[in-house]
Amino acid sequence: MNKKVGIQGIQGSFHHLVAMDYYHKDIAVMEHLSFHELAQKLAGRETNEAVMAIENSIAGSILPNYALIDEYNLSVIGEHYTPVNMNLMAIEGQKIEEIKKVFSHPMALLQCKEFFKKHPHIKLIEDADTAEAARRISEEGKLKVAAVASPAAAEMYGLEILAKEIHTIKSNATRFLVLGTEKQKPNGEKLDKASLKFDLKSERGSLVSVLNILRDCCLDMTKIQSLPIIDEPWKYSFFVDVIFEKFDDLEKAINVLKLMTEELKVLGIYKNKLV
Ligand SMILES: O=C(O)C(=O)C[C@]1(C(=O)O)C=C[C@@H](O)C=C1
């Protein structure tokens, strides 16, 4: 039986394109219309693995997704970086001046802010998914509305692209995590990246001490993200990604950090794809 891989969105969404790219083989794609549902279904073993966007080069981190990975005890088993090409699409034969409303995923709208500043007559409406917005406009035959989505979605749902590549910076890209319910098993690939989470006591220099340990253990930090601990106002959790050459170095750092931090969690050890 094909592996069931959860995505946020439907066919033609960026998650769908990433799933096709990452797995290179037959998978059963399971569509979800929220990140919460994506995490819940994976944790409940209704899917085997899932693809989840975590950060975009223009719009920044998707903070709630860090919390979901933690809350549902999901494991990071891989990552994938992909260029993201945003396009304005609608039922054929209309001009941008006629479009009154644009529907899309909030992360997609954020990536096109500069474009929409030049078209202030258009009202932006946040939707569950880029491709789903495109499909709905097509199925309902709605005029004067448009979606922001991938060229694949325009093709799949028969919409005309009114403006192409409308993202603010040409090199727009999104980092996706591949998630499972178990830690990655050795698969012959050299694993060289880890995602860690810890809470810090509010003590002077506690974060600096952690960063010094990472440096002393030869770990290269590629990302640090703080997240408020909701039941303890003004206390934070930290999510850190590190690249390592020797597994021993990572182990050494983890052992020391366990003593220095509260609730150290290894979210996953996987192959670095950042070039
Ligand atoms: O709506 C989609 O097509 C998605 O796959 C979601 C999503 C996101 O959550 O960031 C994925 C990649 C792009 O950055 C824009 C939107």
TrEMBL record:
One of the protein's GO biological processes: L-phenylalanine biosynthetic process
Domain Prephenate dehydratase positions: 4-181
Name of the top EC class for this enzyme: lyase
The enzyme's E.C. designation: 4.2.1.51
GO molecular function term, any single one: prephenate dehydratase activity
Keyword Lipoprotein found: no
Pathway as given in its UniProt record: Amino-acid biosynthesis; L-phenylalanine biosynthesis; phenylpyruvate from prephenate: step 1/1
GO cellular component labels: cytoplasm
SUPFAM superfamilies associated with the record: ACT-like, Periplasmic binding protein-like II
Pfam families membership: PDT
Keywords: Amino-acid biosynthesis, Aromatic amino acid biosynthesis, Lyase, Phenylalanine biosynthesis
PROSITE patterns: ACT, PREPHENATE_DEHYDR_3
Domain ACT: 195-271
Catalytic activity of the protein: prephenate + H(+) = 3-phenylpyruvate + CO2 + H2O
InterPro entries: ACT-like_dom_sf (IPR045865), ACT_dom (IPR002912), Preph_deHydtase (IPR001086)
Entry keyword annotation includes Amino-acid biosynthesis: yes
Protein name as it appears in the record: prephenate dehydratase
